[in-house]
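Researcher: We're teaching a course module on how sequence relates to structure. For the next exercise, students receive a sequence and then see the predicted structure as C-alpha cells, so they can try to spot secondary structure elements on their own. Here is the exercise chain.
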Amino acid sequence: MGRMKSSVVCLVLILLGCGGSMTVIPRSGGQPLQASFQDGVGQTSVVIMLPTGEVMQGSLIWIPPGGQVTTVVLSTTYGAGFGSGMSSGTRGYYIGSIAGSRGTVMRIEMMCNTFTMRCVGAGRTNDGTEYDIQR
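Model: And here is the predicted structure for the students to work with:
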C-alpha cells in the first residue's frame, strides 16, 4: 500500500508541474550557480546560468521507477469503467543534456526520491567542469 501511495503522490506532482530553484555547486569550489527547474509531464525543464554569464537551458527526461501496472474493470450501478494503478520503487531519474547560448553543453543525471521529489545528482560540461546538483 505504501508503494502505491508513493506512486500516486509522484504522478500527481508530475501532472501538476512543480518548479523552483536548484542548487548547482562547482566541484572545484566557488559559489553556487543560479539555477531553476519546471516539471512537466515526463520531463523537467532546467535553466542554469554559468559564472561567465552563459545561460544554459533544456529538458531532462523522467525515467520512472520500475513497477508493475495493474488494470481492472470497475462495475458500479451506473455502468462499467476501467481503473489502473502502478506499484513502484522509490527512486526515479532525470537524465539529459542542456545547451548554452555560447556552445557549452552539460550532461545531467539526477536520482530522485519519488515520495518527496527531492533529487541529487551531477552535471558535467563539455569542457570537463563537474557540478553537484540538488533540487
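Model: If you want an answer key for the exercise: Confidence is low (pLDDT under 50) at residues 1-15. DSSP finds one helix and eleven strands in the chain.
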